[in-house]
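for the writeup, i need someone to sanity check this before i put it in the appendix. the sequnce is what the collaborator sent (i think, or maybe the updated version? ugh). structure was predicted straight from it, no edits. if anything looks off just tell me and ill rerun, i have time this weekend
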Amino acid sequence: MSSTHSDVSGVTAEGAAWLASAGTYPRSTLSLWTERPDAPLVLPCGTVFDVVNVPAVFGRRMLDRLWDDGPGSGPVAAYRGRILLFAALGTAQRLPSLLRWEEWGSAGEGGEGGAGDSGRRHSVPPFLCHGRGDAVTVPALVNDDTEYGTGHGITGDPRAESRWVVAPDTSHPWLPGPEILLWAAVRAARSAVSGGVRISIFPPADQGAKVYDVSRRR
C-alpha cells in the first residue's frame, strides 16, 4: 500500500494489512488490493476477528450507543442493508448465549442466527454471528463514488451496497467483546421500544453532529 490513507473511508496501510492477516495468504491478498483497491474481498472469520451482522437500522442504533455512551467500536462495515461489527475472537460463540441469558432473544437458534419470540418482544432483530468456519465480504479499500482525501475512519451512508462505516486504520485495532456488544444491543432495543434513559459506560461527550470520534478507539 503506497499511501497512508487509501481514501476518505480511512483504510490505512496498517488497516489493510490487519484485514489481510485474516486470510491464509496475506501477501497475495495485499497484492490483489494493490492491483484492485476498488474490489471487495471475502475473508474468513475466527482467526483475527469475529463479526456480528445485524440489520442496518438496529446496527446504527448499536453504533450510536457504543460511541455516545460506551467505549467506541472497532471496524464497522455496511453490506447489503446490514451492519457488520468486527468483534473480538469468541464473540460469535458467546454473544448468542448472553442474549438468551438476558432474555433479549437469541442471536442464533441452533447456530442459524434467528431471533426468538423473546427477541421480537424486546425489538432485538435477528443477529448473525460469524466465527471460525464462516466468512464475510469486506468492502473495497476505495469507493468509486467518493473523492480522495484525508481519511478520518468514517464514511457516510450505510445503505450503500458495500462500504466502511468505521474503517480499520491500525495493525491491531481494538475489538469489542460479547459483553460490550450485548450492552449496546440491549440499550439500542430499549431505546427503540420506550425511548428509555440511556445509561453510559463512558464519560459523556459533547453533543453535536453525529460524528464518530475514532480517537476514542482503544
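The chain has a mean pLDDT of 76. DSSP finds six helices and seven strands in the chain.
thx in advance!!
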